[in-house]
């Protein structure tokens, strides 16, 4: 997965991501640009609020966390669990099923097998490394891209379209961005590391 994540550099231009793609990922929950949410005509008279697209809604890392018994902070868990509402229901059920199953970590601990412990720790370490690398990606695609956009130096690649280079200001601090994002991502990475079995 880390190898696949590195391909981001070959295919996604940070300026295009920050100024064009990110806008479509911002959603309308906790978004100052749309404080009331959105009325879905023909569905509900009341406005509805939904988070934007995020790989936090993808099943795979939730499944690894549950399998490896990773325990995130209360605040991070609340966010991550909320993201499960956006998974296809059978995916969510799968993740919850793993969470309810007997603990793999406890099984390894009671087996006393050093090789199994080492293999388990390699998995946890790979997951923490993926999360560290993801932080590097977020820094490049959000923090650095934001600084360049603000300085008016964004240089989107070919095919970016006329709107590239100037992000809507209402989305500057919320959604996919902001320092709270790094606190969250680092906390999730650090609690992953804490999931290692000590010798
Ligand atoms: C331009 C590329 C990317 C950017 C800028 C980015 C940004 C972010 C941000 C800001 C969050 C915080 C939660 C949120 O606001 O939704 C997040 C969470 C997350 N992202 Fe990404 N992301 C990128 C690509 C990816 C990819 C390709 C993956 C797949 C491995 C991924 C996996 C995750 C996961 C699993 C989370 C939840 C936190 C965690 O479990 O560690 N992201 N991402």
What would your notes on this structure say?
The protein is globular. It is mainly alpha-helical and 199 residues long. The relative contact order is 0.20. Helix 3 packs across helix 8, helix 4 runs parallel beside helix 6 and helix 8 packs antiparallel against helix 9 (179-193). It starts with a helix and ends in a 6-residue tail after the last helix. The chain is 56% helix and 0% strand. The chain has one domain: Methane Monooxygenase Hydroxylase, Chain G, domain 1 (Up-down Bundle), CATH 1.20.58.480. The chain contains nine helices and no strands. Protoporphyrin IX containing FE is lined by residues 1, 5, 8, 12, 17, 54-56, 61, 131, 134, 137-138, 141-142, 176, 181, 185, 188. One of its GO terms (biological process) is L-tryptophan catabolic process to kynurenine. Heme b binds at residue 134.
How would you sum up this structure in a few lines?
This protein is mainly α and 199 residues long.
Descriptive keywords:
mainly alpha; Methane Monooxygenase Hydroxylase, Chain G, domain 1; 56% helix; binds protoporphyrin IX containing FE
């Amino acid at each position: 997965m880390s190898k696949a994540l590195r391909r981001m550099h070959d295919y996604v231009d940070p300026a295009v991501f920050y100024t064009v793609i990110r806008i479509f990922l911002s959603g309308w929950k906790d978004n100052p640009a749309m404080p009331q949410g959105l009325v879905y005509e023909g569905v509900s008279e009341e406005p509805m609020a939904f988070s934007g697209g995020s790989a936090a809604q993808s099943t795979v890392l939730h499944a690894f966390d549950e399998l490896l018994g990773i325990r995130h902070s209360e605040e991070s868990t609340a966010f991550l669990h909320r993201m499960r509402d956006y998974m296809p229901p059978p995916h969510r059920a799968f993740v919850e099923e793993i969470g309810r199953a007997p603990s793999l970590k406890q099984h390894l601990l009671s087996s006393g097998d050093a090789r199994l412990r080492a293999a388990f720790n390699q998995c946890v370490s790979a997951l923490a490394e993926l999360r560290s690398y993801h932080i590097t990606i977020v820094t490049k695609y959000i923090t650095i891209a934001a600084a360049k956009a603000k300085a008016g130096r964004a240089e989107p690649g070919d095919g970016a379209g006329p709107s590239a280079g100037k992000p809507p200001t209402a989305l500057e601090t919320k959604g996919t961005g902001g320092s709270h994002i790094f606190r969250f991502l680092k906390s999730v990475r650090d609690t992953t590391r804490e999931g290692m079995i000590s010798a």
